Structures are given as C-alpha cells and as structure tokens.
Amino acid sequence: MKNSLSSLRMFAADLLVFSSILSGAWCQSGLKVSYPKTLNSTSGSCLLIPCLFNISKERENILESSPVVTWRRASLWILYDTVNFTNAHRQKEPVVKVLGDLRKKNCTSVLRNLSSQHSDRYFFRIQTTTFNTTETTAVNINVSDSLAEPDVTVPVLREGEEVNLTCTAPAPCPSQPPNVNWAPALGGDVTQRTQMNADGTQSVSAILKFIPSFHHHELKVNCVSIHPLHRDDRPLLSHKTVILSVEYPPKKTWISVSGSVWLGNNVTLTCQSNANPPAIHRWFLKRAGVEEELNVSHVFSFTAAQNNTGQYICEAHNRYGAMNSTNQQITVPGISFTGFLSILAVVLLLIFALLIIYRRYKEPVRSNGNSPIPHH
C-alpha cells in the first residue's frame, strides 16, 4: 500500500513538472540541453555537471543579457516560485555555480555542499527578467555516503611480457579528486593520470606497469581509491581486489607412484606439473638407451610385468614451453608379492627350527641329586 502511494505521488509530481515545463515553453522557443543522463557523487563533496545547450536564433539575444541558470529538483517543483520556498529552505539546497560561458552555450555547472538528501532528478532552467525556459529531460543525480568501487582492467598476463594494470575511479568533483593506487606494486611503476570521459565527466586512473612472473600467479592485488573527505576521522576509501592469472610454461614436473611394484600388481604413475595453462602430459619408457612413447594422459597405469621394467619419463608441455620430469626407475621382480610371502614364510620356519635345534644342543646335562660329591 505504501509503495502504491509513493508511486502515485511520484506520478503526480512528474505530471506537475512536465505540465509546468510544457506550459512555460508553449509560447517560447525550444531549448535543447545535452548532459549525462545519470551522475553520481559523494556526500560532502561536489558534482560537476557537463552541460551544453542550444536555443533558437530568435532567442539567442538573451545570452547577452546575463541570464540566470538554475537546476530545479523534481521533488521540490511545486515549491519553486512560491512564498513557501523560503530563504531557510534555499540554504539547504546545493550551492550552484555555472562554470561554462553561457554566450558560447556552455552551461557546465558545479553543485557544492551535497548530501544524500540531494539525490533527485534535476532540470536545467535558464531565465532573464523577461524570459525563461526549462529543459524537459532531467539529469538523475545520486549522492551516496560511500565511494563508488573503482573499475579495474587487467589484460592477459604472460610471464616476461610487460603489461599495464589500470584502475580507474570516478572524479565527480574535479577540485577534490581521489588518490588512486595499487597495493602491492609488484615491483613495478605506478603512474596516475586524470582524463576526460566521453560524456564530459572526469576520472582518475592508476596505471601499474610491471613484468609478470609465475610467482605473481594467483596473487591478490588491491586497487585503492582514497578520497580527501573523511568519515569518523578516517579517510573515505574504496577498493577492489583482483586475483592475477599469469600464463607461464611448466616450471616443475615430477612423477608419483602408487601401488607396490610386484609382478601382477596394479601400478599407477601420476605426472604432476606447475604450469598455466595446465600442461598436457606425455609418457615415455626408456630401456637399453631407447625411448618409447607410451601415452598422452595425466596418469599412466599398468599391471606389473617384467617388460614394464625401465625408466619412466613424463613430459609436461603447454603453448609456452615444455619440461621433463626426472627419470623414475621401475623394476618389476620376477615373482609376485604372494609368492614372495610364501618363500619368506618357509625361510622363517626353517630359521625357527634351526634355533630350536641349536638351543637343545647347547643346553648342559643336569646332574642327579643323589650322586656323591667327589672329594679331593
């Protein structure tokens, strides 16, 4: 119910605004103003509104008569030009200053002393003592108590190739630009620059130039935007974290073995490597100085037979390079583990029997208690 009432009030306010604008422009020449559809700023800061306009030739003479530019809020439209719009109320409104040269049809303005309560739709209005006209399209202004998150551009990172990481934060108030930086700087150089955007707004970029290595892979890097404003005695800041993905050739390749190497047992060799993108693995078996390619896979499994004896090599490769593992010697005995246990059991029994015989042979003969003790 509350949402319905709110929507109804907004519709009524829009109807009042547009009827007022159209009635005022009915007998006047048209006005066409160009500015961004939406602008964002921070509470306590200012906001630059890039603005250019055109007016019919028969009305261009007003530009020489010191016209006044105002930016009227949609939500307060009914109060403008009435006694209810008191000086006290005006003092709560943003301070407006026109920076552009109106004679050159430049209406660029700056709003100062902004707060979140000033979020609204604003209409451009130009007037003299004898003439006034208002643009029918509003600019949506959003004033937040927090900073907008910076935008980060990260190209493809390849080991050894110099790249630029770019972090950009909006600068809605050119007199109070944010300080944008990277942390950590990865041993590179950071350059800051202010640029004009296509819509006339400004932004500040921090460009980190560095040479990636595989040590940077999966490293977290922060872009931090610090505004000169303060909140609770702390600088107002915003940040964005990116996790780097560096492409590099295999740096380490090794083989792990699972399963006991006995005749008839299942043995699995696993090739592991440190590479990005992940490596493709090829298996080789070296016997008597001759290498034989076995398979292309991450793992290689076999049922142990004597012809599996030899040196196993794994090659890891991606589009940046290749690396071989150290040779893994596999020697398959000519007997199964079960047969080995049977022989071991027989040997242990023989040893046990020999020990018993040995102990009996070495045991001294005990004398009879009734035998006389010899005298010397």
TrEMBL record:
Q: Where is the Ig-like domain?
A: 150-182, 250-331
Highest taxon listed in the record's lineage? Eukaryota
- Cellular compartments annotated: Membrane
Q: Note the coiled coil stretches, chain numbering.
A: none
Its placement in the membrane is given as:
Single-pass membrane protein
What parts of the sequence cross the membrane? 335-358
PROSITE patterns to which the protein is assigned, alphabetical = IG_LIKE (PS50835)
- Record GO cellular component, one term: membrane
Report the leader peptide range.
Answer: 1-27
Keywords linked to the UniProt accession: Disulfide bond, Membrane, Signal, Transmembrane, Transmembrane helix
This chain belongs to which protein, by name? Answer: Myelin-associated glycoprotein-like isoform X2
- UniProt lists the gene as LOC113118674
